[in-house]
């Protein structure tokens, strides 16, 4: 179906493992297309079990050696304001799954500051916004991500934009501090909707029957304030990559069987 000029579709695989492999394959295809002529690619990563599974599948794909990783920059849609070696840290998970296994320059990995860097939560968000602004695009003081990965919670949250909270409606900032998160840990930094939606492609990856309701609401056009996943859209394409369990409430006509 078409939503505000962007194609929104659903790609289904039988199992989470098969889904991770398929997303990794498409990810490498997009990176190769972007970088083969020397163009820079900015990528926004996500945490969670599927975020890590996709990156691990990417690292295991033989085509990973064909990418010029010096042209790829990595960011995160949100980060938990904990130490860099804390298991809750999204960037730590990403490093273990992929980033430490590829020759990406250190300066191309843009992490949110940690408490031990001597900054407050607010300062961490401000610093992340300033770092984004160094790579401003035609779409704002932030890069336009070639691919933006997003996980989706059972409540429909994306990044650390949770339902019925003020952060989800903010449009005049690139990054925000989040306090008293309904999901631990309580302090986080999140990108805002304008940054996420400036991406060329938004890929939402979700598995499990507990995500079926959120997926159904997002596809049905629910209010993004109450179901943030409903408001995620890439400028060129928006794809929900899901397993069969999560796809239980998806209308067959929405499933893209050719992608």
From TrEMBL:
Any one GO biological process: pentose-phosphate shunt
CDD domains: 6PGL
Known catalytic reactions: 6-phospho-D-glucono-1,5-lactone + H2O = 6-phospho-D-gluconate + H(+)
Positions of the Glucosamine/galactosamine-6-phosphate isomerase domain: 15-237
An annotated Gene Ontology molecular function: 6-phosphogluconolactonase activity
Purpose: Hydrolysis of 6-phosphogluconolactone to 6-phosphogluconate.
Family that this chain belongs to: Belongs to the glucosamine/galactosamine-6-phosphate isomerase family. 6-phosphogluconolactonase subfamily.
Protein name listed in UniProt: 6-phosphogluconolactonase
Gene name for this UniProt entry: pgl
